[in-house]
């Protein structure tokens, strides 16, 4: 089969690779779509602590935002059959260690991440193998393009559920990428009274308005913290979600938060944060929470999308064929300035 491999920093190639034999509990899936994530781009360039710390080693097969169709099943698989439409967790457990045997997947001693840390071969390929325990059925009312947004939406959901949302809650979201857009959409469906999107690019901020934001702040033109306080009549944001991973916005998040507010940090920060006025976090009595993906969220998001009709295909700004993926990685810096979510059509 064909697979996209990052052979070394700044070198992506599509090459023929073998399809290994299935373990009894594993499933071979034909990939239909796979989204390009900011983490994929950082692995490509090597500009990530995951590479510098040795958690990702080249060559590596990336891609964790995939959807597809069951092609073949292992001898012990009972819940899936060829032709079923599926998505997966973005982590794969060993299914053998003491934690796995007691059902505590989050504490698996040998966990691998799909296409990233301690890599399980990812979704930028014609086929992907997944254990049955990490695969989930897709209902008919979620098409493949929308299904490819499920993985980033699980991270959005992990962030937005760290505080109860009410009609009185003022939510501020820093960043305008897929996770930020997912947070905005979820905050709207959960009934947040005010949703403030903070970012640098007007066209992306407009998409936040389309997704449900009530206010936008361009932090290249104004002091974001001061502006959030101004438009909330001096109250600030009860719940700030920082998704950009940019170190200057950490201070902005603290500055715009209301007293006793909550900060969900939903980004990876690749440089040390110098000059942070940390005392403001203390005097405001803020609760700061680190957020990543979690096991159990994929079926929850599928159920949520099915029941609410939530559709985030509007975040997809570009779709390219698999053959053009290496070229997109090569030129991603100029393209990514306007792109929010790029989907690669595999088959």
TrEMBL record:
SUPFAM superfamilies named among the record's database cross-references: GroES-like, NAD(P)-binding Rossmann-fold domains
Domain Enoyl reductase (ER) stretches: 8-344
Keywords, in A-Z order: Metal-binding, Oxidoreductase, Zinc
Domain of life: Bacteria
Family matches, as InterPro entries: ADH-like_C, ADH-like_N, ADH_Zn_CS, ER, GroES-like_sf, NAD(P)-bd_dom_sf, Zn_alcohol_dh
Gene3D superfamilies on file: Medium-chain alcohol dehydrogenases, catalytic domain, NAD(P)-binding Rossmann-like Domain
Cytoplasm found in the keyword field: no
Tagged with keyword Nucleotidyltransferase: no
GO molecular function, one term: oxidoreductase activity, acting on the CH-OH group of donors, NAD or NADP as acceptor
Coiled coil: none
Listed cofactors: Zn(2+)
PANTHER family: L-THREONINE 3-DEHYDROGENASE
Protein family: Belongs to the zinc-containing alcohol dehydrogenase family.
Protein name: L-iditol 2-dehydrogenase
């Amino acid at each position: 089969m064909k697979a996209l491999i990052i052979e070394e920093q700044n070198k992506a190639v599509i090459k023929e690779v073998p399809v290994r034999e299935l373990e009894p509990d594993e499933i071979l899936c034909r990939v239909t779509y796979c989204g390009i994530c900011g983490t994929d781009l950082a692995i490509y360039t090597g500009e990530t602590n995951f590479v510098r710390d040795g958690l990702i080693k080249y060559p590596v097969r990336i891609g964790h935002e995939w959807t597809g169709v069951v092609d073949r099943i292992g001898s012990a698989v009972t819940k899936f059959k060829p032709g079923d439409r599926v998505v997966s967790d973005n982590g794969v457990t060993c299914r053998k260690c003491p934690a796995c045997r007691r059902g505590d997947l989050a504490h698996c001693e040998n966990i691998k991440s799909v296409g990233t840390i301690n890599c399980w071969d990812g979704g930028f390929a014609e086929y992907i193998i997944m254990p049955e325990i990490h695969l989930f059925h897709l209902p008919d009312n979620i098409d493949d393009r929308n299904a490819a947004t499920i993985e980033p939406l699980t991270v959005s959901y992990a962030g937005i559920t760290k505080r109860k949302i009410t009609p009185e809650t003022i939510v501020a979201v820093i960043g305008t990428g897929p996770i930020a857009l997912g947070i905005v959409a979820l905050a709207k469906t959960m009934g947040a009274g005010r949703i403030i999107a903070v970012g640098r690019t007007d066209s992306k901020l407009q998409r936040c308005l389309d997704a449900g934001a009530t206010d936008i702040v361009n932090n290249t033109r104004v002091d974001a913290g001061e502006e959030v306080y101004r438009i909330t009549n001096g109250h600030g944001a009860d719940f700030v979600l920082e998704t950009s991973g940019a170190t200057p916005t950490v201070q902005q998040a603290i500055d715009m938060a209301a007293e006793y507010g909550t900060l969900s940090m939903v980004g990876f920060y690749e440089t040390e944060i110098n000059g942070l006025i940390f005392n403001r976090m203390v005097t405001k009595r803020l609760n700061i929470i680190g957020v990543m993906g979690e096991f159990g969220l994929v079926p929850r998001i599928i159920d949520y999308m099915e029941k609410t009709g939530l559709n985030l295909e509007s975040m997809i700004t570009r779709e390219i064929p698999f053959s053009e993926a290496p070229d997109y990685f090569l030129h991603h810096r100029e393209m990514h300035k306007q792109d929010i979510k790029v989907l690669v059509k595999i088959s």
